[in-house]
Write a structure and sequence with these properties.
By secondary structure, the protein is of the alpha/beta class. It folds into two domains: about 110 residues, Rossmann fold (3-Layer(aba) Sandwich); about 170 residues, NAD(P)-binding Rossmann-like Domain (Rossmann fold). The chain has 14 helices and twelve strands. Strands 1, 2, 3, 4, 5 and 6 form a six-stranded mixed β-sheet that branches. Strands 9-8-7-10-11-12 form a six-stranded parallel β-sheet, with helices on both faces. Strand 10, helix 8 and strand 11 form a beta-alpha-beta unit. The longest helix is centred in the last third of the chain and has 25 residues. The relative contact order is 0.13.
């Protein structure tokens, strides 16, 4: 979405602050919309500098999930949660179980999953206290790590972006910069290497770099994300935290396409137009990174990986459709994607309202 500043009129249906003194849990759950169904979105465990910063993030992320789920064709609304703390030092069974009880207390209005700082094993712990958990381990009938199909969906979106830009979805020989090679970025690098792309990476974590270069010895490493942003690329793929596309970075980007897995890549409203004015095609993040939510949502119906992967393949055509609408209406792709998502939430939400009153 294009909005970057939120207040009390943010449009959210519900925001819940969770505090459990005994375990040290401090969390916020935000439900943006249940027009299409229960609000599905992951839980981010991150050492925010302040509660205000955490609130801003969860509000933006939850709205993004509503648009993402709508564009993915899912009968699910949008929500998100953040746990304030360092997952390496603050995470414990007691804290996760306390958080699970808070999610359970919402009675199914919010369904959680993995995100930055949370993993399949954490969802298994939450599930001991809560029925509204996806992304559990396959041993427990869950979908497992949603990074797998998130990366696959971004790859499909990148192929669609290549076709729109160069007339072919083939990425062979294209120079692709991946900023962040943790969960999703690492898997995306694998798809790109298999496709014959020239891959350049950056990451703040040395262990993530070592893991990627060990798995894919032919890839190139640059010093940091700033160096990657300034590099000569065909495609720039932000796959870490959001807000990477701001006034400064847009001015120095040397790429034809931006297509990555990070949520909320646009730092504020208007950035999408500046990208378009510079001739840079932006694939809306909440469109191309929907593979993970498609994967975990399939768990709600008895998980089948191949069925979920087939549905993720649709991101290729969905991305092409957004680019086509943007071209037809003379607007940036983000605006076109927003219009499609809002239309579905309004039309299907109205239908659900009629059905519940009959």
């Amino acid at each position: 979405m294009t909005e970057g500043v939120f207040g009390r009129d943010s449009g959210h249906e519900q925001v819940v602050f969770c505090h459990d003194a005994q375990s040290g849990l401090k969390a916020i759950i935000a439900v943006y919309s249940t027009a299409l169904g229960p609000a599905l979105g992951g839980t981010r465990f991150y050492p925010y500098a302040s509660e205000s910063e955490a609130l801003h993030d969860v509000l933006a992320l939850s709205k993004g999930m509503a648009y993402k789920n709508a564009l993915a064709g899912l009968d699910l609304g949008g929500g998100k949660a953040v746990i304030i703390g360092d997952p390496d030092t603050d995470k414990s069974e007691a804290l996760l179980r306390a958080y699970g009880r808070f999610v359970q207390s919402l009675g199914g209005r919010y369904i959680t999953a993995c995100d930055v700082g949370t993993y399949v094993r954490d969802m298994d712990v939450l599930a001991k206290e809560c029925r509204f958990v996806t992304g559990r381990s396959t041993d427990l009938g869950g979908a497992g790590d949603s990074s797998v199909l998130t990366a696959y969906g971004v790859f499909q979106g990148m192929r669609a972006s290549a076709e729109h830009t160069w007339g072919s979805p083939d990425l062979a020989g294209r120079r692709v910069g991946v900023a962040g090679v943790g969960k999703v970025g690492h898997i995306l690098v694998g798809h790109l290497v298999d496709a014959g792309a020239e891959v350049v990476i950056s990451d703040v974590a040395e262990r993530a770099i070592e893991r990627a270069t060990t798995a894919y010895p032919g890839i190139e490493v640059v010093a940091d994300a700033d160096a990657l942003i300034r590099a000569d690329l065909d495609v720039f793929a932000p796959c870490a935290l959001g807000g990477v596309l701001d006034d400064e970075t847009v001015d120095v980007l040397r790429t034809k396409v931006v297509c990555g897995a990070a949520n909320n890549q646009l730092a504020h409203a208007g950035i999408e137009k500046r990208l378009a004015d510079r001739g840079i095609l932006f694939a809306p993040d909440y469109l191309v990174n929907a593979g993970g939510v498609i994967q975990v949502s399939d768990e709600l119906h008895g998980f089948d990986f191949e069925r979920a992967k087939r549905r993720v393949n649709s991101i290729y055509e969905a991305t092409k459709a957004v680019f086509a609408l943007a071209a037809d209406e003379g607007v940036p792709p983000v605006t076109a994607a927003d219009r499609l998502a809002e239309r579905r939430m309004a039309e299907v939400g109205r239908l659900r309202s009629i059905l519940t009153t009959v």
